[in-house]
Amino acid sequence: MATNADLIAVSSERPAYPQAKSKWFGKAANKKKLRLVFSFYSPDGNEVAMPLAAMSAYLKRDFPWVEVILKPILIIRDAEAYNAENYARSIAELEPDLIAFSVMSPHWYPMEPYFEVLKSMQPELPICIGGYQAMLSQEQTIENPNVDFICVGDGEYAIGNLVQFIRGSKDGPVDGMWEKLEDGEVFRTEPHQIGDLASLPFPDYDIFEKDGSFDDVNTSIFGPKEKVVLPVMTGRGCPYRCTYCCNTPILDGWKTKKEFLRKYDPQDMVNELIRLRDRYNVGYFEFWDELFLSNLKFVRAFFEIYKEQIGLPFSINSRVEVMNEKFCKSAKEAGCHTIWFGIESGDETYRSTMLGRKMTNQQVIDAAENCKKAGINRLTFNIVGMPLETAENMRQTLELNQRIEPEFFFFFPYIPLRGTPLYDRAKAEGLLLTSKKNLHYLSAANDRQFTLNMKECPELLSAEEYNEICQQMLAFQESNNRLSFADEDGTNMPARVEDKSFSLVDDQQKAALENAQQVTPELAPEDTAVQSYTPPAAQAPASEQKSGGIMAGIKSLFGG
Fold this sequence. Notes:
Layout: E1 5-7, E2 34-40, H1 50-62, E3 66-70, H2 84-94, E4 98-102, H3 108-121, E5 127-130, H4 132-136, H5 138-142, E6 149-151, H6 156-167, E7 177-180, E8 186-187, E9 192-194, E10 228-232, E11 235-236, H7 247-252, H8 257-260, E12 262-263, H9 266-280, E13 282-287, H10 296-309, E14 314-318, H11 325-334, E15 336-344, H12 348-355, H13 361-374, E16 377-384, H14 391-404, E17 408-413, H15 421-428, H16 463-480, E18 484-486, E19 492-494, H17 507-514, H18 549-557
Parallel strand pairs: 2-3, 2-4, 4-5, 5-6, 10-13, 13-14, 14-15, 15-16, 16-17
Antiparallel strand pairs: 1-9, 6-7, 7-8, 11-12, 18-19
C-alpha cells in the first residue's frame, strides 16, 4: 500500500530482511478478523490517549478487518484490578492477536512488570511498544526480553504495516518498526514521518467510550465537574528545543521545522469539533497541541471560526513571550478559559542556560497580568529537582509563582529523559541514579515525602532542603487553587483539578519500588548541547530572543 509517509532519514543500503527468522510473519494468516489491543499506563486516571485514537481511526478506515480494543492500565482507579497479574488475565480473556502499548518514558519502569507477566501467560502474543519511550530509547526498549516490536516514529502507517505483516498479507520488513527476530537479532527500519495530516482521518474517540457514552470516562484532571472535557489536537510538532523535553531530539531528526509543524485546515478542524461536540455532548475542549501557536495563519483563522461556530470554553498551551494584551483579548473572545504556560524555574539565568527557555521573569509577570486582565485563568507548570539546581533556584520558582498568583500552580519533579540535552548533562555530571525506584515521576508516597530523582548534591540542594521547599510548594498549591468554571446558570463551580502524584503509591507499590533491581544507565553522548552553568546564578538576566522566526511572527500578529 502506498503511503504519504516520508522517512526521517534516508538510510544507506540495509541488509536483506531474513523473513524466515521472523516469529510473527503470518501468525494470524487464517483469521478473517485480527484482534488488536491498545494500551497505555494512566497514573492520573486519564483515559484518553491521543496517539492511540489516531491509530485506531486509521486502522478502521483502511483495515476494517482489524478489531481495535482499548484496555488501559488505570492504576489509580483500582490498584488490585490493574496489577500486572490481573491485568494480564484480563488481556488473555480478550484473545488478542497483537497488543500495542503507547509508553511515555517516565512510565517505562512501572510498565516492565506488565510486559513480563503478559509474555509469561501468553508467549505467542506479540508485544509492540510505541510512544516517546520507543522513539527516544530505542535500544533500551527493544532489549527488553518481552518486547517484540517497537515503533520508532509516527505510528499510523507503521501499525498498518504491522497488522498486515502478522496477517501475512505483506511480506518483507515492517516499515516504521524494529523487529526482534527469533535469534535475538534486531532488524531496524527507518521511522515514519507523517507530513500531511489531511491524509489521515481525525482521531477515533469511540474507543474510549464506556457503554456507548463518555459519562464515566475521565478525560482530564483540569476540567469542569459534571461536564465532558474532550482533549483535542489541531496539529503536531513544536519548533522549540527546550533541553528537558522529548520534542528536542525528535525535532533534531526531522528534515526541516516546516515539515515538523503540521496543522489541520482551520475549517476542517472546526467541523470536526462540531461533530465531537454534538456526538459526545462536550462541554469543554482542551487543546493538547505541543504548541498551539505553531502556525500563525491557523491561529488567526481558527479563533475567528471557533468563536462563530463552536462557542464552548477551551484551554490552550502557550508561551509567555506571545501573551500580550492583544493576544489574550483575542483568545478570550474566542472562548479561552485557561492558558497553561511553563515557567519551569524562577531563576532567569538557570532557565535560559540550563533549560533553553529565554524569557525573562518580567515577561512571565506581564503575561500573567495580561491573562488576568482579559479574564483568562492561568495554570503554570514548574519543574523541581533539576541538574545543578540550587535550593535558592527552587525558592525563586516558588516566589515567582507567589507573585503572579496563578489560578493553579503545578510543580513536577524532574525526570531525566534519555535523548534530551538535559539528560546528557545530568549524565556528564554523574547525577543519574542507577536505581529504578526513583526514575518514575511519582515524587511522593502517601506520607508526601518528596525525594530527588537524581543523586543528591548537598552543596547545592540537599535532600532535606528539597523536601522542605516541595512541602512549601504543595502548601501554596493547596491554598491558592482558585481554578473554577461558570455553569450555565452563572454559578461558579470549582474545577476538577488534582495532583495525584501524592496518592498513587500504595504500600505494596512502595515496597516493590524499594526492592527494584539495580540497572545501569545508558551511556550518554560525550558532548552536550547544554551550555556551562555555575550555580548559584549570578549572571545578568537572560536576553530576549532574537528577532525573526515563528515567535516574532506571532508577536506581530497580535500586536507584540
